[in-house]
Design goal:
Blueprint (H helix, E strand, L loop, with lengths): L26 H30 L9 H7 L8
Length: about 80
């Protein structure tokens, strides 16, 4: 272990400088990135769980909802 520490490969001519990507070799950053990837997969999973009827349902149009109907000009209960 030198004066500057050794957090990655040292380049071919040992000048004492680390490589540019020394940071992801740190184990806590790697665990952080794995945790972030797990959160992203959970987000993808739950968005797909929410949207799968609109995506692959037998109806080609997206399902009606109160949120989209008020912008599409569909009469609401108060208007009838």
């Amino acid at each position: 272990m030198g004066r500057k520490g050794r957090c990655g490969r040292v380049t071919r001519c040992n000048t004492g400088y680390r490589e540019w990507n020394w940071e992801p070799n740190r184990p806590y950053i790697q665990r952080l990135m794995h945790f972030h990837a797990a959160l992203m997969w959970c987000y993808i999973y739950w968005s797909f769980r929410h949207n799968w009827r609109e995506l692959v349902g037998e109806n080609i149009w997206p399902q009606r909802s109160e949120w989209s109907d008020q912008y599409l000009g569909v009469p609401q209960d108060e208007d009838i």
